[in-house]
Amino acid sequence: MAKQITSDQALLKEYHTWLRLERGYSPNTVEAYEMDLDKLREYCSTHTDKNDKPLDYVHLDFEGLEAFIFEQFKTIHSEATQARVLAGIHAWYRFLLYKDYIEQDPSELLEGPRKSKHLPTVLSLDEVNRMMAAIDLSTNEGHRNRAMMEMLYGSGLRVSELVGLQLSKIYLNEHYMLIEGKGSKQRLVPISPVAEDWFGYWLQERATWPVKPEFRDIAFVNRYGRPLTRAMVFTIVRRLCEEAGITKTVSPHTLRHSFATHLLQNGADLRVIQQLLGHEDLATTEIYTHVDVQDLRKAILLCHPANQQK
């Protein structure tokens, strides 16, 4: 028999705790899932069932959920965003089922778009070098930006991992840093000698900045002594690309893609790259096994016996 719900507020608080502590989702994922639930609650409050009663966002049936998803997807055209909304709805009903508030999961049969696999944008080594060279080291932020770019490219960090990086988790003497990735999962990531050098220059500069006491352990801060936002790092990367004359659509994640691709091209084992990136599933890492058309053509010209007769 299903448990009784004492209040909406208590239920939502319990859901937040389940997402954060029991499931171990990152703050960004928790926020996204709770926003999806808010949309479902709003939808239910403005729609009625066959008996002209407001829909119940806890005990909504499959047909009601399907109508909600159809309504959402009218304005959401991105496959990735559609899949994320579905994931949020699935999480909500899994929580209700797990906590015995419902006896059957109505979202179980919901189907969404199959995300097509797009090859990631990758920078060449020359383009990476041009980006680094575009950083103006005479500005107050110059050494900080160079250290950040070296860590994104040299260690393959996600932008969320970069902005949340703590000084107490960086072990320069051991050449490692402890990174907290998705789902609060931790991994040790090596720091390249080049990144170490630039990070050292940044620490000297950072010592002169008005860092707020509560943010003293945050590695990268803005000019006001507060943590950098992900949006600010995006802006810095895109501005550097413009100044370097790079016309590709580039984000901080592009440097992570480039890190993995360049390692693979130079002989690194795929499972090593998987561990460095913090991927749970090797299949996620396998996207970096792509090679461009020129590499394919070169392989045929050099290795196929038919071309050896000329």
Explain how this protein is built.
Helix content is about 50%, strand content about 5%. The chain is mainly alpha-helical and about 300 residues long. It has a 3-stranded antiparallel β-sheet, with no helix packed on it. α2 packs across α4. The chain is globular and about 70 Å long.
Q: Helicity, in percent? A: 40-55%
Overall mean pLDDT stands at: 86
Q: Which series of helices and strands comes N to C?
A: HHHHHHHEEEHHHHHH
> Which class best fits the helix and strand makeup?
mainly alpha
Q: How does the major sheet shape up?
A: 3 strands, antiparallel
Q: Strand share of the residues? A: under 5%
Distance from N terminus to C terminus (CA atoms, Å) equals 79 Å
Number of strands: 3
Tally of separate helices: 13
**Parts with pLDDT < 50 across at least 5 consecutive residues:** none
Rg (C-alpha, Å): 24 Å
Provide the spatial order of strands within the biggest beta sheet: 1-2-3
In short:
The model has no long low-confidence stretch (mean pLDDT 86). By secondary structure, the chain is mainly alpha-helical. It has 13 helices and three strands.
